Amino acid sequence: MANPGNSAPASGCRFGATAALTKLRGFPSALLGRQNVEIDPTPIPTTTVNRRRATSVAASLDRDETLAEKISEQLDHGEEVKETEETVLYLAYGSNLASKTFRGVRGIKPLSQIGVFVPELRLTFDLPGVPYMEPCFAGTQYRDGSDDDLDVESDVSEKAALMGQSQRESYHKRRWSGPLVGVVYEVTLADYAKIIATEGGGRGYRDGIIDCYPFPENYDSSSPVPEHPSTPAFKARTLLSPAADDARLRSQSRKGGAVVAKPALSWWYTIGLHFRPDPDYAQPSARYLNLIKTGAAEHDLPISYQEYLAQIRTYHVTTGRQKAGKTIFLVLWVPWLLLVMTLSRTCAGPDGRSPPWLVAMANILFTAMWSSYDLFFAKVFGNGERTLTDIPA
Fold first, then answer.
1. Is pLDDT above 60 for 168?
2. What CATH number does domain 17-318 carry, 1.10.1200.10, 3.40.250.10, 3.40.30.10, 3.10.490.10?
3. Would the annotation count 94 as a binding residue?
4. Which end of the chain is least crowded, N or C, by CB within 10 Å?
């Protein structure tokens, strides 16, 4: 998670540019001016059984399908989300696993936390970032517990369909076929509003409610991730991509299941949305992946999952042409990205939520940036999404 940053709603095969823009907050501190953020060393308690059981109550905030809209409406009217005793449970799976990101850069103060696995979802790395620097970020996709997963994603584009099975199997980031593994944080309503803002919720993501399963009390991290839960499920909120809904709807339609209408985004949030032709192609940067690996280690997540993260190949510039292309590309586009980020801080609501015109502007900027890469930079300077040595001949 993002996702984050990460924000990864968890996300699907394609994301809105604004959601990716928020991930720029995870870039090196020199780009954002966020340096040496101190983190409270006080241990965070484990989320209690009673708090988890509370999610079964229909009136709980954890099950409120309109909570994100309520928060967004308050922010759009310039109102701050008041600090109350009410809390929500939020599922993190990307860079928000790392305390450096979640508690440091984002400034979230979780009240409790617990490691979980989510059979309904799987981890992906398919949120477009910035070529040559941060090619992609973490997201999620629905899984069926079968090989149909690959089929659902294969119809994203003709390019993906023509790649061939041997190349698809070479994607180390797709070698994990088990459930999504992450951490559920208990946060205040005000902090959840901040998460929505910093992860682009309501723009490229939508707020979703997912069944999470805690690991058994006697679970050893050296054991495999359970495929069939033996612990009671509880509800947690996470940020999902509209593309994840697209994939689920296609899968349901193929199997003849009941199809539920997907939530629609406001028209100004969909202007200029950029999609990559093959969501499996790009590799995450070493910097970004290290945040996820660090977070997984901090929370003592299953060793098998940490080993999977450790073997994911990251993007590296390997030729002089790529180095030159990276320099020119960043000189050309980073000032515009910084401009949009500055405007988002200047024009945003109390928690940093951007106004609709700025969302559309960010989407169009990202579309232009990626178009310049596809039409010129990739052809002249070389690959900015995947290390050349990892591309099958």
1. no
2. 3.10.490.10
3. yes
4. C
